[in-house]
Each structure stands twice: as structure tokens, then as C-alpha cells.
Design brief:
alpha/beta, Aspartate Aminotransferase, domain 1, Aspartate Aminotransferase, domain 2, seven-stranded mixed β-sheet, four-stranded mixed β-sheet, 14 helices, 14 strands, binds pyridoxal-5'-phosphate
């Protein structure tokens, strides 16, 4: 495979951009490859600078649930552009998208738009603290909620371990305000909430773990969080930046029928443009400025191009049967992986929730970050490189998920399964 142009661009990029990338995992460091520079994409296909074509399961890390360059989204952006690119004043488009979001997501009565998932979670945390007058927050190991200071904490696996900064630059004083617990562990969260519940502003969780590889919640976990937070007067935040409009129109809260107090959205809601959102009940959202004292703002928030892309996206997703068809496609891919793993005898776990797939190279079932870390990373690297060679574009990390889009057709799925079989055979 000729990667000359990607290679040349990478060498240029690393001179002026840290690691040559504007988001670290794009650098492919953990799998020992250099990044592909992308020229263009269409449907489920992505094309690199050298003209190599790949079936794309990254989907820009989740947003491209319709595939790339969906005509409705493209046209909506083009139409909005004719009216101007940003006004810093309210537009009808914000109302339209807000109405669609509130209609779709069960727990949201009011919504505020921001520019990224990071901003959404950061703002939701501030709101939770402002509304409760408490400082502590609880998160779960392996859940990613963007790169805000308080959320970068990844404390060890001990019970209620109080903060170790997950990154230099995060003051210890911030990290101390974050309690990090193992995902899916109902005992530990119960202990912490019983002991310190009255100090805890919120519990934030990915209702389906998507940033340590795919780790679904065990039965009862989300209900347990709902019950505990209700008892202590803490707010429950579902970070649905991945799951929102992905696993169902109403996200994981609709799928599992559990109402959080606050919801954060991103990725799909922007149709490939930079958008995030957070929201909850009228009462909670009334704390946000200018209605209330909790400050949060944005020069480009509610940007008309981004709102238009989001509106077109949600219109497409609300077509009858959209999720059934998408999930069937993903199910076929899951079955293909299972069969291939069975045939080759590779120690691996295949998981799927709706159109999100996970593959861990480990013998043991994966319910949390510690389980995920038992995966054989060398085997993943060889698998990643092999798949790329076969024309399959995957996220360059064992701890990421695969996203199937509506543009993946049976022939793409069968081609992917054949590629996986060929690659896994070389790993035995
Ligand atoms: C991607 C992601 C974020 C951060 O969103 P950005 O738009 O990258 O800032 C937050 N939470 C979850 C669950 C995510 O997957």
C-alpha cells in the first residue's frame, strides 16, 4: 500500500502541530502506525491522501451515523451558508433544533447548545455544582467526558480513592473534588454515596461505556445510580455524547428507561459540525445565565451552519425504521466477527449495543476498565495494521469502539468480515 503522501504530510505536520494532530488519539501512537491523512469521504468510504480507499468504522468518532456527505446534511449546510456563517445573535434554527432535541430525549425539557462534548459536560458539571451547592463529583474509571480539568481524573481502583490528576496541568485541588470508581460496581458506588452523598453534587456516567472499548452497563447498574442519587439529592448526569441519537432517538435513557437529571450531547447532534448540548428539567436549567447565576457562554454557540446540519441529521434519523435497519446491519457484522473468532480460536470478546461494536483481545468478559486492560495490545496492533492493509479503517486503539452507519451496505459488511477472517488467521 502506497502511503507516501500521508507520510510527507505527517512529516510536515509534526513540525508545527504537537504530534502532527489536533486530537491525540489520531496520532495512532499506541498501535505503532503513522496517521493516514484524509483527502475525502463519501458514504461509508474514506479516502486517504494517496488515494487508498477504506471502509470507515470510525465515522469521525461517532457523528457520521448517516455516512459521509449525506445529501440532506450537505444541502442544509449549503442553504444556511447563503444566509451567513455566524451572527452572535439568536436565530430560528436554534429553536428548531432545540424543539427536536427536547421532543426526542425523554429527560430534557430545556437545552443549551455549545460547541463540543467537552463544553457540554464541563457546563453540566458546573450547573450541577451551582444547583446543589456541593463540590464533589463522582465519575467512573474508563469513562471519558472530554478534557475539562475535573473530568480528566482517573484515580486507581481502590474504594473511593480521592483524586490523582490524570494529566499534568490539572491542579491537585481540582482532582480532589473528583471521586473515580470502577464502572459497573454497584457495591463501591453504594458505599461512597452512603458515606459522602450529602457532599456530592453529581454522578456522571456514560450510560453505555464507549471510551474504554464498548462496555455495556450490567443489569441494574444505571437504576442503582438513579436510586442512590435520588436518596442523596445529588444529580445524575448521563453523558450521551456517543449514545445520544446513536442507540435510539432518545439515547440510552430511552433504551434503558432511566431518567437522568441532566444529559450531555455531542457528536451526532452536529451532523459532523462542532456542536454539543446539555439540558434537563425547566427547574434545573433555570439556574443557567441569564435566567440564573450559573455562567456559561459561547461566541459561536448555536452557530447557524451547525444548527442546520443538526436539524437535517435529526430529520433523517426520525424516519420510521431507521434504527431497525441500522441495527440489523450491525448485528450481521457482530455475527460475522463471532463466527470468525470461533473459527480461528483467537481469545477475544465481541460486544454490540445497537450500532456500536466492540472487540477485545482477551479471554475474560469485560465489565470495567481493569477487565479491558487485560486485552493483548500487541495483538490489537497487529490486527489494526492488518485491517488497514485490507482496506478497513478502524480507530487506532483497543479502547475505542466501532461505529456502523446507515451507509454500510451488506457488501461492505461481508467484505469487512472476510478481511477480519484473513487478518485474524495471521494472528493465531
Ligand atoms: C467524545 C466524547 C466527549 C467529548 O466530546 P468532544 O466533542 O470531543 O469534546 C465527551 N463524552 C463522551 C462520552 C465522548 O465520547
Amino acid at each position: 500500500m502506497n502511503l507516501q503522501k500521508s507520510q510527507a504530510l505527517y512529516e510536515q505536520a509534526i513540525k508545527i502541530i504537537p504530534g502532527g494532530v489536533n486530537s491525540p488519539v489520531r496520532a495512532c501512537k499506541s498501535v505503532g502506525c503513522d496517521p493516514l491523512f484524509i483527502e475525502k469521504a463519501d458514504g461509508c468510504m474514506i479516502v486517504d491522501a494517496d488515494g487508498n480507499r477504506y471502509i470507515d468504522y470510525v465515522g469521525s468518532w461517532g457523528p457520521m451515523i448517516l455516512g459521509h456527505r449525506h445529501p440532506s446534511v450537505q444541502n442544509a449546510i449549503a442553504r444556511a451558508m447563503e444566509r451567513g456563517t455566524s451572527f452572535g445573535a439568536p436565530t430560528d434554527l436554534e429553536i428548531q433544533l432545540a424543539e427536536m432535541v427536547v421532543a426526542a430525549v425523554p429527560s430534557m425539557q430545556r437545552v443549551r447548545f455549545v460547541n463540543s462534548g467537552t463544553e457540554a459536560t464541563m457546563s453540566a458539571i458546573r450547573l450541577a455544582r451551582g444547583a446543589t451547592g456541593r463540590d464533589l463529583i463522582v465519575k467512573f474509571e474508563g469513562c471519558y467526558h472530554g478534557h475539562a480539568d475535573t473530568l480528566l481524573v482517573d484515580a486507581g481502583s481502590g474504594v473511593a480513592t480521592l483524586g490523582i490528576p490524570g494529566s499534568p496541568g490539572v491542579p491537585a485541588g481540582f482532582a480532589e473534588k473528583t471521586i473515580s470508581l470502577p464502572y459497573n460496581d454497584m457495591e463501591q458506588i453504594t458505599t461512597v454515596m452512603k458515606a459522602r452523598g450529602s457532599e456530592i453534587a453529581c454522578v456522571i456516567v456514560e450510560p453505555i461505556g464507549g471510551n474504554m472499548g464498548l462496555v455495556p452497563p450490567v443489569a441494574g447498574f444505571l437504576q442503582c445510580l438513579r436510586d442512590l442519587t435520588q436518596e442523596t439529592g445529588s444529580l445524575l448526569i448521563f453523558d450521551e455524547v456517543i449514545t445520544g441519537f446513536r442507540v435510539a432517538m432518545g439515547g440510552a435513557q430511552e433504551m434503558y428507561d432511566i431518567m437522568p437529571d441532566l444529559t450531555t450531547l455531542g457528536k451526532i447532534i452536529g451532523g459532523g459540525m462542532p456542536v454539543g448540548a446539555y439540558g434537563g428539567s425547566h427547574e434545573i436549567m433555570s439556574h443557567i445565565a441569564p435566567d440564573g447565576p450559573v455562567y456559561q457562554a459561547g461566541t459561536l454557540s448555536g452557530n447557524p451552519l451547525a444548527m442546520s446540519a443538526g436539524i437535517a441529521m435529526l430529520q433523517e434519523l426520525s424516519r420510521p425504521g431507521f434504527y431497525d435497519t441500522l441495527n440489523q446491519t450491525a448485528q450481521r457484522l457482530e455475527e460475522g466477527f463471532r463466527q470468525t473468532i470461533y473459527e480461528t480460536g483467537i481469545p477475544a470478546q465481541v460486544g454490540r449495543v445497537a450500532s456500536i461494536l466492540g472487540l477485545f483481545f482477551t479471554k475474560q468478559a469485560v465489565h470495567n476498565l481493569a477487565d479491558a486492560k487485560t486485552a493483548d495490545l500487541d495483538m490489537f496492533s497487529a490486527y489494526y495494521a492488518g485491517m488497514r492493509e485490507q482496506g478497513i479503517y478502524l480507530a487506532p486503539s483497543q479502547f475505542e469502539s466501532m461505529f456502523v452507519s446507515a451507509a454500510h451496505k451488506p457488501e461492505h459488511i461481508e467484505h469487512t468480515i472476510d478481511a477480519a477472517r484473513a487478518v485474524l488467521k495471521t494472528l493465531t
